[in-house]
Batch of 3 targets.
Target 1
Amino acid sequence: FQFAQKSNYSTMSNSKISIKCHFEGAWRRFAIQNSFYTELISTIKEIFTVESQNELVTYYVDSEGDEVRFSSDHELQQAINFFVKVESSYTLKMYVKMTEVKSNPVSTQQNLASSQHQVPSATHGGVRCDYCQQKPIQGVRFKCVICPDFDLCESCEKLHISIGDHLYYHPMLKMFRPMNLAGAYIRNENEETLVGFIPEQQQQQQQ
């Protein structure tokens, strides 16, 4: 294989480029159509059967014995020019390493904690979403702590809507499991601010 004889070796994008590649103890020879780095990586992964999601590090050894990495079209062209001009070779002799993907221990712990505390989807029997009219509400139920009878499903609660007497800034009680909170309020002394709910089951026990 020979390149077109030109004084400017950077204009070889239309010529096939001969590659001698070392990866995981094996040498392979192949050619790529042009000096696009993405094409080079794609060809290497195909020839050496590397999974597409794995990242590779590519480099060559210069005349001083240093490993020179390249990861772009421009750097690939410089590597080719080095072998043509300095080594008098029309073959790019290169090496490839697989990068190690290190997991984030904090992220891993957070994902583990999240999976351990996931709440199973619930069905709130007889409860209708006052916006989309879904009945019964599936998953998380949001009940207004100001309005006597106002509920939203999880999707509608994210819309921050106002309907009738319900205003978007009203605090909402987030309920992961079904619970009967029918009409039981705790108010402060001046009867102006709602403090909380007493579940119907607890009301019966107190009576």
Target 2
Amino acid sequence: SSVSDSEYTVDSDTTYLSSKLSSGPQQPLERVAQSTIKLVATNLIANDHLLEGCQLLCLIKKAVDACRYMQNFHHYNEAIWLAKVALSRDEYFEVMKYYIDLLVNNGSRHLGILLAISLHYFDKAAEILLATKLVTIAAPLVESCIEAGKWPDTGSDIKDRVFVEYAKYMVSLNNVEVALKYCDMGGEKGKQLGEELRICAQ
């Protein structure tokens, strides 16, 4: 049938290109046009041969692209596995960040938070917690990370935002003393809120 013939052609082409790329010193990679291989790979992916196309991408050291294609086509488990075995640490984390965002956007926020914490993305976990209005969990998490020297120095203001929101929560409980403590830890906005609270307390 035409379907089986097409699959046979794909398998044959993939096998041929794979053998060319993995044949060692007799066929160095420089003799094979990477752009041509990438074009073949993207055509395979566009024609519902995702895994075959990704295989070719990996053979020309384009595993990052392969992971992105897998994610775009909702093959998340395969993308994570490939990222873990084929990518650098930073590239692997980028793939996982995408997956965390996906979990959060699909309503699995708690799973996204746990995954972020397991990967030491504490700022990401705090951001999700704050967006979920779980500031009573976010503040102790951030504070514990800072005390342990584990808080990432990314330039993000999430730490300050968490402490300011937690200070406001303490104010709602009439616990101004604790609120002021967190205001002092909340950057410029925290200091402003602290000044307002001290004025009101006079």
Target 3
Amino acid sequence: PGLIIELVEALSSDTVAAPRNLSRSLRWKLDTIAEQHDGYVPLHGRLFEQWMHHAFPNECSQPRAVGDTEAPMTHDEWRDRRNISTQVTKKVMQQLTDLESQAVGPACHDEACMSWTHEEELVSDIDLSVFGRSMADWPRVQGRRLRRVLRSLAMCGAGAALMAILFDSLRPLGSRFARQVAKRSPSG
């Protein structure tokens, strides 16, 4: 959980500035998720998705409730399935607006007021405890092989990321160079 908190605190978005300090309740919620999974936070679980929604409410959607398997619907599909109208009169809209303006107390928009359910639902049934074992628990040969494979994968991933960053940063230079060459060449 500590590494996830460190990464999320350094991560910015269009609506969340970084660096930032996550609230105690958000840290506690992540620790609670880890406690349910032998100290690990499954990134493929509903609780982590819910936690990310609390950390980035405008970027990460609220996960569906456990067992809610209804597929997303278009507006027309929703209206047809429920056989109700989705239109209201201007008078009804004004009444709703007036009710909202008369509400007592401030609206709650921070993560402490957001709903939280403790039901977990994993997308995968990976045994996370396997990843927490020390290498002494594994046969030496398999451990060496695994380390080599993981090291190679990490190096390939780092190389690919470096190339992507390099190409992305050089793209503006390439288009500027192409415009200068086009200006210098005689037009025929």
